[in-house]
Design brief:
By secondary structure, the chain is mainly beta. The protein contains 5 helices and 18 strands. The two termini are 17 Å apart.
């Protein structure tokens, strides 16, 4: 069944920047309170109209945060720098997102971009910590980052449409940035990119390397033990962002690749994103962003198995026969557990799936008021080798 998302939000969003100087001119306490009153609905659920979200009102927090940052002069044009930024939900006081699911970017210290490093006028900036890569769009699309923090996920978030993007805000990241004229470049590298089950896969697999476990079928025939799968920590990523800023237009290009997702050798994801903005007058611009996401060895959309099954496993085999540490109803087959999508289609475990998407944004300032509009569309997912394929998997936001 075709899945479409229709979201209508009419309300008031209040943004309160908070800045305060502490004991030093080089230390700054800052923050933002973003709270909205809106009305929304979502229709066209694949499971039927009973699962639609009817029109409702809510008070919602959209990425409020508080932070502490500072610099220390080291001489010779070099400075030590740091930032500790924490997301806060002023609507509920808990760490859940608006969907009721835990949001890893709120609730505790340093949940948002937090790092320590060194920078210089000619040296550039080198930082270490929890940092953003790939998904941020800078000045091209500011609706989500700097205005109301509620933009189309096709434009600014790593989970765009049906497929999963490579990275977003990641822990254990090394990042280097350099500016020259109107150009800037940022390169990022991270290991154990995303926490899995409360512990980063890089660390947990290293801890479990000596543990005994049931054997898993190998891709080339025979069996491999879970120990050999876990001996070498995996799950790393790299990303690069290039930007050019001009008085009339801004350009940006991003590329990121994440390897061995969840510690599974060969389960990779990548994304490429290109965008531009035309600033037709001060405080006003029109921008367009195109993005392609690719998931290799997908093993089924939405699969929750931390150790994806080898590609040559028959979909008719009962999951219980594999001895994996997952709970499924009695009689569940591999195809039922890992290869069936919510839309009724299916994918093979070895498929490389891809999805193209684009977003157009408009912003215009009228004195003290600002108007914002945005529309995004993702096409059908391509690359399924099964007979069912992935029909009607397009998304609109």
């Amino acid at each position: 069944m075709k899945k479409a998302l229709l979201a209508a939000a009419v309300g008031a969003a209040f943004t309160l920047p908070a800045y305060g100087q502490l004991s030093s001119n080089n230390l700054q306490l800052y923050g933002r309170l973003n709270v909205a009153v809106d009305n929304y609905e979502a229709t066209g659920a694949a499971a039927g109209s009973l699962f639609d979200y009817k029109s409702r009102m809510r008070v919602s927090d959209t990425a409020s945060r508080v932070g502490l940052r500072g610099t220390e002069d080291l001489g010779n044009g070099l400075r030590a720098i740091f930032q500790i930024e924490t997301g806060v939900n002023v609507d509920t006081g808990n760490s859940n997102g608006q969907n009721g699911i835990n949001n890893p970017n709120t609730g505790t210290w340093a949940t948002r971009d937090s790092w320590v490093g060194i920078e210089g006028d000619r040296f550039g900036r080198l930082t270490f910590g929890r940092q953003s890569a790939y998904w941020a769009n800078g000045t091209i699309e500011q609706i989500g980052a700097n205005y109301i923090n509620a933009s189309s996920p096709l434009a600014s978030y790593s989970q765009s449409g049906v497929l999963v993007g490579p990275v977003a805000r990641e822990s254990n990241t090394v990042q280097y940035s350099l500016r020259f004229g109107g150009f800037s470049a940022t390169a990022s590298y991270g290991f154990s990119a995303t926490a899995f089950g409360g512990t980063s896969p890089y660390e947990s697999y290293q801890q479990e390397a000596g543990a005994s476990a049931a054997p898993l079928p190998a891709q080339g025939g025979g069996f491999v033990t879970q120990r050999s799968v876990l001996d070498k920590p995996r799950d790393t990523y790299y990303a690069i962002t290039l930007r050019y800023n001009h008085s009339v237009f801004d350009l940006q290009a991003d590329y990121a690749q994440r390897m061995d997702v969840g510690g599974a050798n060969g389960r990779d994801g990548s994304g490429i994103k290109v965008g531009g903005a035309w600033k037709y007058m001060p405080g006003a611009q029109i921008s367009l962003i195109w993005q392609r996401l690719e998931n290799e060895n997908s093993f089924g959309l939405g699969a929750s198995n931390p150790i994806p099954l080898p590609c040559n496993i028959s979909g008719a085999i009962p999951v219980a026969a594999l001895g994996l540490p997952i709970a499924v109803p009695a009689g569940t087959t591999v195809a039922q557990a890992f290869r069936t999508t919510g839309g009724g289609g299916s994918v093979n475990g070895c498929d490389t799936l891809r999805q193209d998407m684009w977003v157009v944004s408009w912003e215009h300032t009228f004195g003290n008021f600002q108007a914002l509009a945005q529309y995004g569309r993702a096409g059908d997912v391509k690359g399924s080798s099964t007979a069912a394929g992935l029909p009607d998997s397009d998304v609109q936001t």
